[in-house]
Amino acid sequence: MQITPAQSACIVSWAENIPFLKRVFLTGSRSRRAAHAASDIDLGLEFYNEESDEWLVHYINNRQAWTTELSGQCGFPVELHLWEPGQLVYDNGAADAKLLYFDSSSEK
After folding, report:
1. What letter does residue 21 receive in the DSSP assignment?
2. 107: helix, strand or coil
3. What's the CA angle centered on 31, arms 40 and 57, to 5 degrees?
4. How many angstroms separate the Cα of 35 from the Cα of each of 7, 58, 79?
5. CA distances from 46 to 1, 33, 73 (A)
6. Whole-number Å distance between alpha carbons of 68 and 53
7. pLDDT over 50 (residue 108)
8. Does the first or last residue of the chain, that is N or C, have fewer Cβ atoms within 10 Å of its Cβ?
């Protein structure tokens, strides 16, 4: 069980409104197709971070609210993890990650 098209659309819609957000990856059991009915949705978030730590402050200050918001909208518990290119900072599920969102408008 991955995620439904409605859940994917919900995540993309949310991501489009988050400052500094570059990419969102589906990780964990849902990206490996090993999820069961009660599995959470693990998301890796990659931010534009070349110029300052403002993105990190934004993530820290909003992570809990974003988790609550997405969990309600997606209908499943959501866990957010920081993503660095090639790996997750707080999870080791990078090998099976699936790209859900890419902010092409801000590509430098």
Report:
1. E
2. coil
3. 65
4. 15, 30, 14
5. 24, 22, 21
6. 24
7. no
8. C
